[in-house]
Amino acid sequence: MLGRVLEIYEENRYLSLKRGFIVIQHGSEELGKVPLDDIGVLLLSAQSVSFSKNILNALAERGCVTILCGKKYIPQSMVLPVYSHYVFAKILKTQIAASAPFKKRVWQQIVIQKIKHQATNLKLCGKAQKAGLIEKIAKMVKSGDPDNREAYAARMYWKALFGKDFIRDRNLPGINTFLNYGYAVMRASMARAVCASGLLPALGLHHDNYLNQFCLADDLFEIYRPMVDCTVFQLGINDSSELTPEYKTKLTETLWIKVHTIEGDSPAFQSMQYLTASYVHALEEGKPVIAVPSWTGDAYDISGAEQV
């Protein structure tokens, strides 16, 4: 069963546990309750939410991730079930032992697929001519992407998608705020998949920042960014748009975009588990080949996100 995204975006909410449910209250009024077993991600975008430690522990025991957002919906921290996997120590040793050439080859596959997905998005958004140029760049990516074709493709991609004056900067308002929010939801889901597979999220492939505890999640998450971009474009967002609860719901639904995986067509949310599992297998076999999901622009298959 796919876990749902439970977002708390209204201020002054209180969360408690009761008989296997998370209960949401405002003062003495009960607003709703959600079964713990149904939750995949608890997203706290409100700044004044009260809850107890036992809620975090109960979610972690079920392999769930809790993400806390700061201003502009940028994630400030995540609570992850890092030590819940029964072969954590074994997988950790393979992560540590992974060679630089191994990680560069895997990163090459991620960058190629990310660029291909950018091209897919441009086609869906009526930018077919630019999509062809982006696809050509994907064929030029070498092991480790030493020529930084990822950045080269990104410069063309953003101008083609949102106009020549658009600048991707997470600190800017409007379109960037919507992208921040969508990425935060997607990144949280990837972090959950990474930990569910017994991987340590701090040990990345390409991202390497001692201040970032989610380097691996950020590496693997790159493949899914264009899906968020697509949703933002299709919503007709501009720099004067405000991120309303209705828009948040639409962005959360990106998790249910269908992609092609080794297990058949799956929602993006579920495909992340297949991707991380394939990375574990690559580490164990010592062969730098992962099963990256392929997005061809299929329609949404939405189970929805619950917001309170």
Structure description:
This protein has 308 residues and is of the alpha/beta class. The protein contains ten helices and eleven strands. Strands 8-7-5-1-11 form a five-stranded mixed beta sheet, with helices on both faces. Strands 4-3-2-6 form a four-stranded mixed beta sheet, with no helix packed on it. Helix 6 packs across helix 7 (215-221) and helix 6 (175-196) crosses helix 9 (245-252). The chain is globular and about 60 Å long. 44% of the residues are buried.
What spatial form do the alpha-carbon principal axes imply?
globular
Quickly count the helices: 10
Radius of gyration: 19 Å
The helix/strand class is alpha/beta
Please outline the major beta sheet: 5 strands, mixed
Low-confidence stretches: 300-308
Strand order of the largest sheet: 8-7-5-1-11
Task: Note the gap between the termini.
Answer: 21 Å
Overall pLDDT level = 88
Number of strands: 11
Give the ordered list of helices and strands. Answer: EEEEEEHEEHHHHHHHHEEHE
